[in-house]
Amino acid sequence: MSEHRRLAKFLVVSAASFFIGTVHGLLQVVPPVRHWLDSIGSPYGGPGHMIDPLAHAHINLVGGVTLLVMAMTYYLLPKALGRPIYSVRLVEHSFWWTTIGVASFYIALLVFGFVEGHFWLADPAKVPEIHRYYGPVISIASTILAIGFWIFFANILITFLRARR
Ligand code: HEM
Q1: CA nearest 159: which of 93, 78, 76?
Q2: Where are the domains of the chain?
Q3: Which of 14, 16, 77, 127 is the most exposed, fewest CB within 10 Å of its CB?
């Protein structure tokens, strides 16, 4: 059993995020979808902005790239320093907080984008009523995501500082 087996899930979720992100990216250019997104404000504002570019950018850049960079750093830093990572428990925490954070961030952007987008065209007076839930929901998802980043950063920094000592 490789000592790095725990990093496999970072790579799998990264690949899955790129898959979702590329399907999302393709759908965004299909003419009827593109027309609908433009009619609800994408990419400049309104509910369309939540779907394109926000959800698309973050599933690819956070789900895809950042989780891959985390796995590579957890693999390479011990080799570069000749010391193990400070905490394996924090490796696990950084994975789950970041994965649950990016998933909830992406789903929240899509759900509010679609629901508000529907009412943006069908009954605009209803949009503010729905949008007042957006702030709290996206703040919770963003906080979970940020905690994942900060745990990763702390684990890397402590590993580096201990190696220097
Ligand atoms: C806790 C983590 C993060 C949160 C809460 C967050 C939140 C946001 C928000 C709210 C915006 C939209 C600003 C606007 O209204 O235009 C944004 C834009 C963006 N973010 Fe993040 N972000 C996070 C991490 C990241 C990371 C790690 C990357 C890249 C690796 C990234 C890449 C982008 C890009 C490229 C845009 C611009 C999208 C565009 O308008 O084209 N974000 N982010």
Answers
A1: 78
A2: 3-164
A3: 16
Does the Cβ of 62 fall within 6 Å of ligand 1?
A: yes
pLDDT at 66: 98
pLDDT bracket for residue 123 (50, 70, 90): very high
Ligand 1 atom nearest 105 alpha carbon = 5
Residue of the CA atom closest to atom 12 of ligand 1: 54
Atom of ligand 1 nearest to the CA of 146: 1
- Burial-class residue 13 by CB neighbours within 10 Å (0-12, 13-18, 19+): buried
DSSP assignment letter at 124 = G
Peptide bond into 136 cis (omega under 30): no
Is-above-0.90 flag for pTM?
yes
| Architecture per CATH, 3-164 | Up-down Bundle (1.20)
Ligand 1 in reach of 121 Cβ (< 6 A): no
Residue 22 to residue 42: CA distance in whole angstroms: 18
